[in-house]
């Protein structure tokens, strides 16, 4: 509005002068000069926005007041009274609403004074009625237009703010959903194990009592640690957690912590290295908080470093700003973190998903807690990382000696139970069980799960009825499924390497595995997650904690469903592939297999090896696939198809029995007759009779 009046008065200076309205000419020049000087000062100083705004607002109010009085009152001022309204309108732009009200009241007082003085003022002679009305309309029009555009601007800003707020709320809702999903997963998984094993021990306490209790204890500690982390983070953010400092040898303490992670690192074939420039350093530190900091960083490095990788804990001392400082670096040769993700990794509940095949486990609390603990100890934390090369996190702590000195420098007895940081990682016993407990007639069941305790629990439920195999992530699960062609797959959803949704999608779109029923187990209880799982082709979707009886029933029902379809194929002469196929991939496979057999129908030497080569599978994969869909071996499948074609030809009176036998690839008539009778319950001659 200020700009509108500024432009208006600048434009009309020569017009005022030409019309001989000297007062208006002088007033317009004063208005323009004041605003130019004000703008120049503001531009040069580059600060004092409040001062600039206040001076401009007051100037417009008093300029309008003086202009009206000089011109003979409101009625003869050509609308100069409207110039003053710029003051309160301009004040509305700034957050100080009280000032805007004061400026408005001041303006209204000047208008009232002008109205009261109107009878006593003498009109300025050069302002004729025509000039007065023209410039009144012009001033009024400028004010209305500026007022309209101001309201329009604020209306648009209001809409933009509402849209931005709606977007922010949606993003916040998505973040909350993701947070709750992650936390729910971390709670539901150990709860599934604890509840399931408790039920088993209640039903039969003598079965694996010691191992079951150990698993329950370990998962109970895992839950307790998660809850403790969340509470600690809340206390730190509320400034309600003190630092319990005392003097001791921090080098020996750090060495003991890293040694506690040796077994975990060795189980993943990772080299754990401890390097220090100083053998002993007595300083103030908090044992529990240092344990949490270093353990969180080491467990993260182990989690994201592949087999054969290296992890280093590097200790050094330096002087910065005349202050002694201890540097603790945790460096690994892991997968690394993208540069655009680095600023967020210490945010609460933030988890880095590098791509669709690498999922970050956990809740996203560990690093946020680590940063808050470092800050509590007056330290700093910094991270450097490069994708596919590794990550280095540096903690810098001030070296002080103000706390009580502990004469006992062996601090190992002060360590909390560090086992809560170390998950169960011994897979050898599970692999040995897979190698030694194979029962030929039992269905093959593949469990894909990254938690060994969950695997042990599920195996304890299923091992008596199924040959159970296991995989620790989606990628390994896919490889094992292609190798074994199991009868059913049970998979977790949230896993490293490849999640359960992607695994299910790959299994259902591959001809070799499309027939395999897939049950997804997840902590995600939302309808959207369930629909996502079912859309990938999952046959069932169960929420953790899983009810053992429900799981067993659903497995039995899925396997029974496939068995009934296989029986239909073996009994019905006219059954087509689409009638027994569960998925479109199954149908395509059967159509392809039938096409190949039909093409080689007349060849009596057509073998399973040739069949598997033309289908594009190994002989073992072909056997598992054909048997899963038809309950027949490949040899039986080929023979059955030939016999069904022979029966069809007999019905069509294609020729005599010998001609039809040779037509469908049998070069031995007695063998043909024997096989035909086994399938149809009568000889070919009897089958061809009209009354048969």
Q: What characteristics describe this protein?
A:
5-stranded mixed β-sheet; 57% helix; alpha/beta; flat; 4 domains; 5-stranded parallel β-sheet; Rossmann fold; 692 residues
What gyration radius follows from the Cα positions, in whole Å?
42 Å
Strand adjacency order, main sheet: 2-4-5-7-6
Unreliable stretches (pLDDT < 50, length at least 5) are 355-360
Work out the strand percent: 5-15%
Helix content: 55-70%
CATH-defined fold name of the largest domain: Heat Shock Protein 90
| Average pLDDT reading | 79
Please identify the structural class as seen in this structure.
Answer: alpha/beta
Please give the largest β-sheet.
5 strands, mixed
CATH class of the largest domain: Alpha Beta
The CATH homologous superfamily of the largest domain is called Histidine kinase-like ATPase, C-terminal domain
Query: What is the approximate shape?
Result: flat
Number of helices: 25
The number of E-state strands comes to 12
